[in-house]
Structures are given as C-alpha cells and as structure tokens.
From TrEMBL:
This is NAD(P)/FAD-dependent oxidoreductase. Its cofactor is FAD. The keyword Flavoprotein applies. Residues 4-404 form the RsdA/BaiN/AoA(So)-like Rossmann fold-like domain.
C-alpha cells in the first residue's frame, strides 16, 4: 500500500520533498495557503532565481556559516551539479555566471516554479489550499496534520513552511510553532541576508543613492572579516542592496562585538593612481571652491557629505588645499565609513537564521529524533548560507532527503 505523506508548505523545499516522495511511490498531499506555489522562490535573485551554486562539496559547506557540517550528507548525495541535472531534466535551460551562480537561461524564476509544478502534477501530487494549524500526534509519532478546513491523515509529515522572513509570501513562522509544540527546540530567529541599520544619520542624508562598482568591507572589532565588490543602496535607515545583504550574513555577534563598514568608492584605482586623479581634477578646478570641484569624482548627492567628512572648508579654493588635506580626502574615498548598529527586522530579511535545532534532526534523513515520521526541510532547519544560490541548494538537498526518507518510512 502506498505511504501517505503530507507536506506542509509549497515553497522550494516543500515542492522538492513532494516530488521526491511521489517519485518514490508515495501518495503526496501538499498543504499551501497561498494561491501560488513557490511565492518566495519567484522573487529570489531579483526575479531571476539563483537556482543553485555549482561549486564542489567543500565550497558548498564553506558557504554555510551556521551548522554547515549538518548538511554534509545531504550535499554529498545532492550537490549543485545534481540540482542542475534535475532542473535541466525538467526542461529548464540553465547558465552559470560569476561565482558559480546558476540561473535559468531565460532569467525568469517562474520557469523554475512552473517546472516543479508540472513535475508534481505528472506525479499526481495533490495540492490543497489550506493552512496547517497543528500536527496530529499519537504515541510519539506524527499521524497527520490539522488544517483550517479539515484534518489530513498521513504516515509521515514533512514540515517545509519556510522561515519568518518576507511574511507577505506566507512565511509566518507556523512551522516553528508546530515543531515547538511537538517538543523541538527552536533556536533564536533573526534575519540573515538583511539590510543594516546605521548608528548615525549619514545614510539618511544619502537616501535613494545607489552606488555601483564599489568595494564594501566589513570590520568586526576593527578586524576586516569580509570584502566584496558590487552595488549597494543608501536608505532612510541605513544601507541595503546586494553587497550589504551578503555582508550581513558575516555579522553574527551583535551585542558582543562592534561592526562598521568601509566603502572603497574607487576600487579600480590604487592610492597612488587615485592621488594622481585628484591632482588632475584639482588642477582643472584650481580656482574653484572645494565644494564645486568634486563633480567629476562623485555623485552629486555625495558631495556635501564628503565635504563635511573631509573637514576641508566648502569654500576653500582648490589651489589652497594642502597635501595633508588631499591625503585625508583620498583616505575617505578609499575608506568611506559607516557605523552600523544592527540588523533590520527579520521581516526585511531574505532568509531566516535560526530554526529547529540540528542536534534534534537526523542529518541523513531529516527525520525528527523526537517525533517519529516527522521530517524537516529548508528554512525550518537551523542552517543558513551566504548569497550565491547556497540557500536554495539547502532547500533542494534537504527537501530531497526528507521526501525520499518519508516515502520509505515504516508508516
């Protein structure tokens, strides 16, 4: 007799779990309150969907700073190359970009979610628009799920409800509550890949300014811990954008350690080259006021801030600027400082850090060590990674492990 599996959550991990369980011969029901499956999946990678990362096993693990070792088994059996093979077998053409990031050739995330939906349909996975409210438990094992409309009995349940980031996509934290009610430990939930709050008000003055081709460095207690190149955005509260979201994942000791950022506004020029550029610009504007001599070097919105931070009087004539003053300006251009006070709320994050404690989950099968036939996948688990396709790879690998193991459980 076919095993009955209930998958709670129709996101990336849930759809993968459903496909792998159905492929293994189980009768699968997916509970998803959203009208669309993969709602969060469809907005990843700015709507392009960074499907996975085709790095090797060790590099995959190195990009999971929180409990990466837990994923060794899952990644060993399903890595980025396996994920690529899987999606290409579903008819999605893929391409590899900088940093081994994998995207659909079409640059459309809907192609990924649509391929998963087609495969689920072909495997006769039933999708029910209902919100799970609690697990049905008996004698230390799960027996199904209670929904808003009715009960859904099952021989096994996969919880794949996502984290608590992006609540508009349906990530309400219900899965964590259900896991806790079943006896699981939920480690503190906070945002990862999240905008940063500034300690002062410098960023608010630059609100709306987007910087491209800059280098951002993160300092933890004045020790540089991370550097990357790309684009970022100033906001009313601090900083955001791809560079900042990636940087935030490295800042994990708030309250114990102090953090600040430095922006290299001219990473293509070393200090000597930049000094020559400054001399050239100053020669061109030698009779101008200092505040009117930076237009070739900086976005207009940054000039008043740069003048203030440089402590060079705004109306000092350029030909009167001393070598020391020029040196100070050069340092600012290469090390523009932003003191950050913390992360934005978890609702603003791309992924959730924290979740079901990994010590309570079997790393080979994703089965609960507390409740028989209960499985976890994706953001439910206390693992999270840097940007670059690694978080979706966690969803695929844990979803596959959970779905296959659930289908083969003793029931």
């Amino acid at each position: 007799m076919n095993k009955k599996i209930v998958v709670v959550g129709g996101g990336a991990a849930g759809m993968m779990a459903a496909i792998c369980a159905a492929r293994s011969g189980a009768a699968v029901t997916v509970l998803e309150p959203n009208e669309r499956l993969g709602k969060k999946l469809n907005i990843t990678g700015k709507g392009r969907c960074n499907v996975t990362n085709c790095a090797g096993l060790q590099e995959l693990l190195a990009n999971v700073p929180r409990n990466g070792k837990f994923l060794y088994s899952a990644f060993s059996r399903f890595d980025g190359h396996d994920a690529m093979d899987f999606f290409e077998s579903l008819g999605v053409a893929l391409k590899v970009e900088r940093g081994n990031r994998v995207f659909p050739v079409s640059d459309r995330s809907f192609d990924i979610s649509a391929a998963l939906e087609r495969r689920m349909k072909a495997l006769h996975v039933e999708v029910v628009r209902d919100r799970a409210s609690s697990l049905l438990l008996s004698d230390g094992a799960v027996r199904g799920v209670r929904g808003g409309q009715q009960d859904y009995p099952g021989d096994a349940v996969v919880l794949a409800t996502g984290g608590v980031s992006y609540p508009a996509t349906g990530s309400t934290g219900d899965g964590f509550r259900m896991a806790a009610e079943a006896g699981h430990t939920i480690t503190p939930l906070q945002g990862s890949l999240v905008p940063l709050q500034e300690a002062g008000n410098l960023c608010a003055e630059l609100q709306g300014l987007s910087l491209r081709n800059v280098e951002l460095s993160v300092f933890e207690n004045n020790k540089k811990i991370y550097t990357d190149f790309g684009e970022m955005l100033f906001t009313h509260f601090g900083v955001s954008g791809p560079l900042v979201l990636s940087a935030s994942a490295h800042m994990r000791h708030w309250g114990k350690k102090a953090y600040h950022l430095e922006i290299d506004l001219k990473p293509a020029l070393d200090e000597q080259q930049l000094d020559r550029r400054l001399l050239s610009d100053f020669e061109k504007h030698c009779n101008s006021d200092f505040c009117n001599a930076l237009g070739d070097l900086l976005p207009q919105k940054m000039i008043p801030i740069m003048v203030k931070l440089s402590e060079i009087p705004a109306h000092q004539k350029v030909h009167e600027i001393t070598r020391e003053q020029r040196r100070g300006l050069l340092q600012l251009l290469k090390h523009f400082p932003i003191v950050v006070s913390g992360l934005r709320p978890v609702a603003d994050a791309i992924v959730t850090s924290g979740g079901v404690k990994v010590g309570e989950i079997d790393p080979k099968t994703m089965e609960s060590k507390i409740v028989k036939e209960l499985y976890f996948a994706g953001e439910m688990i206390d693992v999270d990674a840097y940007t670059g396709g690694f978080n979706l790879q966690i969803a695929w690998a844990t979803g596959k492990a959970a779905g296959e193991a659930a289908a083969n459980c003793e029931g």
